[in-house]
């Protein structure tokens, strides 16, 4: 077996763990009244879900190690894309097109004074995504389990 194939098997196994983490985070979100804790758990759920679908590096340093989008059910494809975009635009990066910063400058007794507002940070915890994210994690987890015993396939 090749090193890349071993890496593919490993990323599939690690993806199972990531999907379990998403499910557990959502369980804790539902059981908490603490908004801050819910926000942190949601961010971690988004990161954990997205990680296996991104271009990770193989052991030899080359890019492209990921699980296939084919593991996402067709009826959840739009939510999948929304979760990945949320991770890319608001959680992992600071895209100004999403943050929509507004900076106001004024003079006071000390000189120039600035105030800033951003809209993106307030939109990270999207309640409407919690149930679909749970469905996605369960579906991907199930797909990974279904193909786990077939160690000769290269459909990651």
Question: Care to describe what's here?
Answer:
The protein has 156 residues and is an alpha+beta fold. It is built from 5 helices and 4 strands; from the N terminus they run ααββααββα. The strands form 2 sheets. Strands 1-2 form a two-stranded antiparallel sheet. Helix 1 runs antiparallel to helix 2, helix 1 packs antiparallel against helix 5 and helix 2 crosses helix 3. The radius of gyration is 19 Å and the shape is elongated. The model has no long low-confidence stretch (mean pLDDT 88).
The residue-averaged pLDDT reads 88
**CA-based shape:** elongated
Largest beta-sheet characterization: 2 strands, antiparallel
DSSP, total strands: 4
Question: Order of strands in the sheet with the most strands?
Answer: 1-2
Strand percentage: 5-15%
Low-confidence stretches: none
* Helix percentage range: 40-55%
Compute the number of helices: 5
């Amino acid at each position: 077996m090749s090193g890349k194939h071993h890496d593919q098997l490993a990323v599939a196994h690690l993806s199972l763990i990531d999907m379990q983490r998403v499910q557990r985070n959502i369980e804790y979100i539902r059981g908490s009244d603490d908004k801050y804790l819910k926000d942190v758990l949601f961010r971690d759920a988004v990161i954990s879900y997205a990680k296996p679908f991104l271009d990770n590096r193989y052991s030899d340093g080359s890019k492209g190690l990921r699980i296939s989008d084919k593991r996402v059910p067709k009826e959840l494809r739009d939510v999948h894309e929304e979760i990945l975009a949320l991770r890319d635009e608001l959680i992992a990066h600071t895209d100004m097109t999403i943050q929509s910063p507004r900076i106001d400058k004024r003079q006071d007794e000390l000189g120039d004074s600035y105030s800033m507002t951003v809209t993106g940070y307030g939109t990270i915890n999207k309640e409407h995504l919690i149930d679909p994210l749970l469905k996605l994690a369960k579906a991907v987890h199930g797909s990974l389990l279904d193909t786990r015993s077939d160690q000769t396939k290269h459909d990651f």
